């Protein structure tokens, strides 16, 4: 079958209608021709007109990652329409006074499907819920795939059922998730996830041409790209509308077939959640607290996990700070879930507000870097193309179970991309954390008592006191200790038994003594 697309041409100075010609060639019986006409996307001057027909109870897919690439004007217009009982699907819910947080505050959103609460206190207060990162579910929905199997979430509440979707006012669970179907492929367990589709998609892009084709800028592609494909009606707000031919055909990110309405936004705040830069070399270091010394010790040891040519994904905090100490004679390619490969912490505030990483911090990129959408980013992760993922934890079990996303009824930040990152069989998972919680409570346990992020997924644990290797069958092996400590000291502050390596290295010999 040959698909011939004639695109949008100019006729009498106006864009012509799109014509899609499907030519089916059969060797046995000649040819069958069929044509179908599709109306080109409509252009609006007022974003309120573009969203005023969204009814109560609609499901909306909202692009963006944190506050980067969110459809500000369309969200503000929904405030004006007063539409209610919305189901909103998005990576997260903005912050209290910006983005989707505005619709949460006015109670216009009844249900939120999201993987990360982030910095939105109102979202956490109202819902205290989490769900698998919807990227792959949205991509499947846009491709007409009703369900699929994934290793992500196996052995957790996502698979077993009981994950809180909504809490009652007294803190009890009002709605819990249902168990997922499990299937085994090639010796590994996978769970079935249903795809996600929406009635409307609200998308922020950089530019659209008069034929309805769309391009994004830098990391603002994130969730916007897959959202475009999974809704019955896609509404795109852009910063600029240009003539047909301004974009080369091969540079278009979203072709016009997915775009139904386009509106040019008047103003964009483009708020940044976390302005982050490297400390200047000339800056006088601040006096260090005990907690700073502990963090520094973990950071410097964690940096030794990097190897030349490695592709790595780093979590917020200690893991990302470890990237400041990558050896100068090696190259490590850092990847972020929102769609960057080849990032680095900037020395100055980036002028490109579309350039942030998954932790919402500002970043810059190195020569040879690439931008892509979040669904492509998670394909890299789930497909085992990332060599190393480094992240924090609340608890780790003897056999490598990881808990780092919620304390039931108290704190739910959401699993973000962590469940995907630790589910790939080809990725080394390194946990960096303080050895004990406040009050000396154990964090390394025989069995985790918090909801799991992943089962038997951790390969190494790095704390300020020790380094353990983890075997999913044999358990923990102590391989390094801090200067002055002994294996017996480590046993006293560890909540499970472990083997001791024949040769124990001193952790301090592997770390620099320079100031951060």
Please tag this protein with its features.
516 residues, alpha/beta, ten-stranded mixed beta sheet, seven-stranded parallel beta sheet, 35 strands, 16% helix, globular, disordered N terminus, 3-oxoacid_CoA-transf_A
Rounded to an integer, what's the Rg over CA atoms? Answer: 25 Å
Percent helix, as a range, is 10-25%
Terminus-to-terminus distance? 61 Å
Strand order, largest beta sheet: 24-23-22-21-25-30-32-33-34-35
Q: Describe the biggest sheet?
A: 10 strands, mixed
InterPro entries: 3-oxoacid_CoA-transf_A (IPR012792), 3-oxoacid_CoA-transf_B (IPR012791), 3-oxoacid_CoA-transferase (IPR014388), CoA_trans_fam_I (IPR004165), CoA_transf_AS (IPR004164), CoA_transf_BS (IPR004163), NagB/RpiA_transferase-like (IPR037171)
Pathway: Ketone metabolism; succinyl-CoA degradation; acetoacetyl-CoA from succinyl-CoA: step 1/1
GO biological process, one term: ketone body catabolic process
GO molecular function, one term: succinyl-CoA:3-oxo-acid CoA-transferase activity
Q: Secondary-structure blueprint of this entry?
A:
Layout: E1 2-5, E2 10-11, E3 14-15, E4 18-25, E5 31-38, E6 42-44, H1 47-51, E7 59-62, H2 72-81, E8 86-89, H3 101-105, E9 109-113, H4 121-126, H5 135-142, E10 147-150, H6 157-160, E11 164-167, E12 173-176, E13 182-185, E14 188-194, E15 198-204, E16 207-209, E17 214-215, H7 224-229, E18 231-238, E19 240-242, E20 261-264, H8 290-302, E21 311-314, H9 318-322, E22 333-336, E23 340-344, E24 364-371, H10 374-382, E25 388-391, E26 395-397, E27 402-403, E28 406-407, E29 411-412, H11 418-423, E30 428-432, E31 444-445, E32 460-462, E33 466-471, E34 475-481, H12 487-492, E35 499-506
Parallel strand pairs: 6-20, 7-8, 7-15, 8-9, 15-18, 16-19, 18-20, 21-22, 21-25, 25-30, 26-31, 30-32, 34-35
Antiparallel strand pairs: 1-4, 2-3, 4-5, 10-14, 11-12, 13-14, 16-17, 22-23, 23-24, 26-27, 28-29, 32-33, 33-34
């Amino acid at each position: 079958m040959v698909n011939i697309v004639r695109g949008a041409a100019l006729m009498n100075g106006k864009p012509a209608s799109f014509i899609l010609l499907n030519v089916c060639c059969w060797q046995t019986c000649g040819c069958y021709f069929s044509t179908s006409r599709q109306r080109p996307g409509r252009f609006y001057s007022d974003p309120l007109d573009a969203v005023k027909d969204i009814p109560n109870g609609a499901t909306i897919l909202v692009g963006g990652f944190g506050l980067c690439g969110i459809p500000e004007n369309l969200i503000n217009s929904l405030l004006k329409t007063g539409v209610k009982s919305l189901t909103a699907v998005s990576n997260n819910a903005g912050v209290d006074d910006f983005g989707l947080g505005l619709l949460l505050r006015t109670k216009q959103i009844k249900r939120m499907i999201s993987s990360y609460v982030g910095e939105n206190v109102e979202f956490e207060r109202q819902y205290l819920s989490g769900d698998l990162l919807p990227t792959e579910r949205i991509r499947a929905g846009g491709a007409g795939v009703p369900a699929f199997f994934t290793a992500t979430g196996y052995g957790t509440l996502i698979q077993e059922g009981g994950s809180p979707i909504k809490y009652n006012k007294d803190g009890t669970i009002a709605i819990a998730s249902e168990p997922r179907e499990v299937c085994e492929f090639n010796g590994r367990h996978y769970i079935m996830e249903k795809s996600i589709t929406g009635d409307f998609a609200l998308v922020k892009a950089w530019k659209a041409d008069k034929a309805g084709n769309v391009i994004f800028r830098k990391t603002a592609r994130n969730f916007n790209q897959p959202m475009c494909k999974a809704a019955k009606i896609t509404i795109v707000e852009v910063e600029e509308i240009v003539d047909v031919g301004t974009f080369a055909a091969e540079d278009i990110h979203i072709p016009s077939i997915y775009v139904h309405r386009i509106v040019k936004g008047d103003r964009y705040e483009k708020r940044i959640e976390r302005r982050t830069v490297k400390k200047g070399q000339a800056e006088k270091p601040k006096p260090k607290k005990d907690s700073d010394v502990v963090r520094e010790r973990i950071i410097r040891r964690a940096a030794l996990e990097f190897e030349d040519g490695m592709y790595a994904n780093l979590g917020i905090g200690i893991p990302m700070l470890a990237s400041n100490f990558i050896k100068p004679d090696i190259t490590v390619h850092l990847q972020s879930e929102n769609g960057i490969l080849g990032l680095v912490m900037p020395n100055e505030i980036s002028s490109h507000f579309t350039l942030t990483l998954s932790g919402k911090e500002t970043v810059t990129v190195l020569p040879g870097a690439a931008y892509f959408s979040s669904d492509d980013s998670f394909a890299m992760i789930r497909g085992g193309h990332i060599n190393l993922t480094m992240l924090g934890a609340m608890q780790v079990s003897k056999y490598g179970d990881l808990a780092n996303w919620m304390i039931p009824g108290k704190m739910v930040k959401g699993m973000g991309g962590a469940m995907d990152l630790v589910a790939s069989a080809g990725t080394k998972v390194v946990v960096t954390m303080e050895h004990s919680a406040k009050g000396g409570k154990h964090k390394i346990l025989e069995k985790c008592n918090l909801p799991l992020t992943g089962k038997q997924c951790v390969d190494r644990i790095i704390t300020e006191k020790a380094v353990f290797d983890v075997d999913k069958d044999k358990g923990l092996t102590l391989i390094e200790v801090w200067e002055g400590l002994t294996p017996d000291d480590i046993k006293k502050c560890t909540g499970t038994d472990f083997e001791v390596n024949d040769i124990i290295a001193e952790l301090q010999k592997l770390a620099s003594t320079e100031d951060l």
